[in-house]
Amino acid sequence: MGGQSSSTQVQQSQTAPWEAAQPMLQGILGQLSAGLNNAGLTSAETGALNTLQSNAAQGNPFAGAIGSYANELLNGGGATNQAGAVNQNYLDYRNALTPYANGSMIGNNPALAAQLAQIQTDVGNSVNAQFAAAGRDFSGANQQAYGRGVAAGQAPVIAAQYNQDVANQRAAQDTAYAAGNTNAGILSGLQQQGLNNKGQGAAAAQSALDAQNYGANATLAAEAQRRGIPVQALGLLAQIGVPIAGLGSQSSGTTQGTQQMSGAQQFGTIASGIGSLLRYMPSDKQLKEDIKQVGALFDGTPVYGYRYKGAPAYHIGLMAQDVEKITPGAVIEINGYKAVDYHAATEVSRRIHEAG
Q1: Which terminal residue of the chain has fewer beta carbons within 10 Å of its beta carbon, N or C?
Q2: DSSP string, 127-143
Q3: How far apart are CA 303 and CA 38, in angstroms?
Q4: Which are the contacts of 130, defined by CB distance < 8 A and separation ≥ 6?
Q5: Dihedrals φ, ψ of 134, to 5°?
Q6: Global pTM value
Q7: For residue 321, is pLDDT > 90?
Q8: CB 201 within 8 A of CB 67
Q9: Tens digit of pLDDT for each residue in 22-45?
Q10: Cβ neighbours of residue 147 under 8 Å, at least 6 residues apart?
Q11: How buried is residue 178: exposed, middle or buried, by Cβ count under 10 Å (0-12/13-18/19+)?
């Protein structure tokens, strides 16, 4: 008896990285898992944010003082408080100079009257003694000689005093004029200082408003950090974890026959995938802070110093946005962020350097 038989083989398979490479990948994924579990706030970060929020709730302790200072400046800051005293000092000084400045003291010097009387007495004693010795006292010649002697003695003194009084009058007028100008300058300076104080008061008023809003602004800043730190940490971890997660896949179907691939071939395939991924470094400007240019490559691509947001370590490297303009093939995008193949990005610069 004869027969016929046939067979169909149904096969399900799962592709995975070469077995020898799995421990390394599992280690990477394990570290990512630990990082995902720690993507939230640390205790130190929570404590710092709570301190900021507590300080914010208390408000700015100097708000009241700043407000009082602003009000005082807006009212002039007391710059013209002494204006009345300054002006009164000027008036007293002017009143003391007035008799000399208006000429009323000319010829009215009490010391001059005493000096003239002394001259008259001295001349009289001398002339009268001479005429008395000659027996001619009280004669007409005696009186004539006495008059001429008094006139000759007093005339130079009166002329000198007149000239001095006129000079004093002019000096008093000049002094009063200068004092008036000085007083006007002082009062003008006080008025200008008052205006300056009012201008400073306007600026201080804004500071007072800022102080009043300090609590609200500090609270908003603390909450922004509270929301932003976990998001930044998750974003950085996702750039690494998501591409690695895509290395493995599952497949199912019906097939006849088998296909054999050596371990070396598997390793080559996986190594190629990992190498393609790992040669790209996250370099998107959105992921960085404290950015400062420190140099440039030979092809003009800027080189920066920076920190990744939320991380303390300082790095030096390129910005994906700059590399795109010169070597676009060296940039890929992963989950909305750009990454750079540094070998490809620096190839043009290396060639320029070697050619030079």
Answers
A1: N
A2: HHHHHHHTT-TTSHHHH
A3: 32
A4: 145
A5: -90, 0
A6: 0.36
A7: yes
A8: no
A9: 565 566 566 656 655 655 666 777
A10: none
A11: exposed
Residue 52, φ and ψ in degrees, nearest 5: -60, -45
Q: pLDDT confidence of 4, banded at 50, 70, 90?
A: very low
What are the two backbone dihedrals, phi and then psi, of residue 174, each rounded to the nearest 5 degrees? -65, -40
- Tens of pLDDT, residue by residue over 227-237, are 677 667 666 76
Phi, psi values for residue 337, rounded to 5°: -120, 145
Helices 22-37/214-245 angle, 10° precision:
160
Whether the CB-CB separation of 120 and 128 falls below 8 Å is answered with: no
Q: Is 213 helix (H, G, I), strand (E, B) or coil?
A: coil
- Residue 263 in tokens: 């371990």
Q: Evaluate whether 308 touches 315 at the Cβ level (below 8 Å).
A: yes
Task: Give the dihedral of Cα atoms 100, 104, 106, 110; nearest 10 deg.
Answer: -90
How does residue 312 score in pLDDT terms, banded at 50, 70 and 90?
A: confident
Note whether 197 and 77 are within 8 A (CB): yes
**Contact, 239 vs 282, CB < 8 A?**
yes
| Closest CA relative to residue 201, chosen from 61, 78, 62, 77 | 77
| Between 199 and 355, the higher pLDDT residue | 355
Half-sphere CA count of 277, side-chain side, radius 13 A: 17
As a residue count, the chain comes to 356
